[in-house]
What does this fold into?
Amino acid sequence: MLILGIETSCDETAASVVEDGRHIISNVVSTQIDIHKKFGGVVPELASRAHVELISYVIWEALEKADCKLFELNAVAVTNSPGLANALLVGTETAKALSFSLSIPLIAVNHIHAHLYANFMEHSIVCPVVGLVISGGHTAIFYVENCNNYVLLGQTYDDAAGEALDKVAKMLNLGYPGGPEISKRAEKGSSKAINFPRAFLGKDIYNFSFSGMKTAVARYLECNSYKNLADVNDMDVNDICAGFQQSVIDVLIKKIVNSAEQKHVETILIGGGVSANTEFRKQLSEICKEKGMNLFFPSLKLCTDNAAMIAGLAYHRYKKRKFEDLSLDIHPQLQV
It folds into this structure.
């Protein structure tokens, strides 16, 4: 079964052809980093305009790389939630047009669920499991009963983990996207040099809050008389990055491990762009090994936004006959 996946939830225009939910035949991603870099973050209107310009070319490239004709497709799948409203509209309306013109089923996919499903495309996983999605827009924990049933346990009250990392990078003038740059700088610094606060939220096991942790960095810069970024030498920057990154990692690890223990499951899945962070992977892997838990990450190419995970998850919705009609709407907010 061949499914064309379309992903336009934020600043990547992506299309992919996947066979039987696992075999990635093509996976094309056009990033907009150069467009948004000078603004220090994603500008929604610019993102949606770029999707309009690129979507047709990206789809055709995915089909060509898969050596697949339009009439050979069994279904078209698209991200309709969550994400930037106008960006989601571009992908959703394109998918509707393809579904109508080709007389094939239209399948709606939750982008955050798909980040966790990316693990199923590369590993043999037995459910139930708990999963943590960490990206620039979302930080959320799910109880996954099977590939079609994702129960939201908790999410961030404010900034997502990736958003907090990007904003701290912006404070330090490290560029955009900031997460990878903070990771590089942290390798040269000491995570023990500066002890930034951790927001564990007491008995609130499943939810997160990163806004105050991010603000702590701003207050640190002020209290240490850094009147401008020129006053911050490289060693200070490296230590700030290492200290802040460690504070975020500590919260993420404690929350997801506690969630697994509370739900009495032995397997943890991780997904989303921040899951590519080397130090996070290393530390969580060590803790899961100590506790005898199974841990799965997607490969780096499936950590960031892509359409392969959309088409892959759509296969399981296809088997359940979960199809949409042309009234399909977008849902910018994460749906429970």
User: Anything to note?
Assistant: The beta strands are 2-7, 12-19, 23-31, 75-81, 106-110, 129-134, 139-146, 149-155, 267-271, 294-296. The CA atoms of residues 13 and 54 lie 7 Å apart.
